[in-house]
Amino acid sequence: xxxxxxxxxxxxxxxxxxxxxxxxxxxxxxxxxxxxxxxxxxxxxxxxxxxxxxxxxxxxxxxxxxxxxxxxxxxxxxxxxxxxxxxxxxxxxxxxxxxxxxxxxxxxxxxxxxxxxxxxxxxxxxxxxxxxxxxxxxxxxxxxxxxxxxxxxxxxxxxxxxxxxxxxxxxxxxxxxxxxxxxxxxxxxxxxxxxxxxxxxxxxxxxxxxxxxxxxxxxxxxxxxxxxxxxxxxxxxxxxxxxxxxxxxxxxxxxxxxxxxxxxxxxxxxxxxxxxxxxxxxxxxxxxxxxxxxxxxxxxxxxxxxxxxxxxxxxxxxxxxxxxxxxxxxxxxxxxxxxxxxxxxxxxxxxxxxxxxxxxxx
Length: 362
Known about the structure:
Blueprint: H1 3-13, H2 18-26, H3 43-49, H4 55-61, E1 66-67, E2 78-83, E3 88-91, E4 96-98, E5 106-109, H5 115-119, H6 131-142, E6 147-152, H7 156-163, H8 165-174, H9 176-199, E7 204-207, H10 221-241, E8 245-248, H11 255-263, E9 268-269, H12 280-286, E10 291-296, H13 298-303, H14 306-320, E11 326-330, H15 340-353
Parallel strand pairs: 1-6, 6-7, 7-8, 8-9, 9-10, 10-11
Antiparallel strand pairs: 2-3, 3-4, 4-5
């Protein structure tokens, strides 16, 4: 059944499943209520709310509308330990990384230290990416019931991981040819990987490379447009040509590069960082054809009262939901710092106030 018929079926029966709800949002139609999903949910939060419950059962229990594999470090492909006592390992790209208290291990050293290293570097095989095993389970369980997604990459994160962020930023000015070669390698890898997961039945590729600090982009808008935007456009175009929807998340204050991001052809943006001044209503007003997603503050989920969370969710619904094209989520993901009672309040408030129709959102 194609996406058009799924959305239409929901309207005719006045009974919507999660996939129909997400489909309607991306088509600019009005579903029965505001849908929701999260990029990742910390396992500790799941266990505090529903002890012993698996991630996929948690998704079903809280009735999320889209679901991904919840890949954190285990999706990186730990190749071997370099120092297990210090939690230092090498990943399948040859990047030396270390586990900390963060969900994603920090990079310590990349394999590309010179043009000579790049000339002899062989990237991993995208058809052996560890995400593929998880996608098989994901699609097998949720196909035609809930929208499915993976956290994909475009060109920035993988490039700075193998070269080092500081080195790559210097290369923008001193060795642009090397930058283009590194970026091109990322484009080719993720085109193959994204095509494969779409062929397996995934609906959405959610690109998650972070381009900015809280104060602004990691590089000038001019450098972003010259070195990263062409690759981003290529990846987004390829996703859509192979039947996928494409969302773009990035941390930080991205107003200076948001026009460029939107020009890539993404179907939507978010979650964005409210603490960095990324107001979703402003984004939606400026780009009315985009789906917007977010934006309950992660800091608030970890320290605010339940009453404050309820009010924040209600305000987001009132500001962003009218006219459709809105998905509610946190401003990034559900981190270990999120208070279980605040998570529960966010979901309960969505169900109470997120409905469209005669008595709901106008």
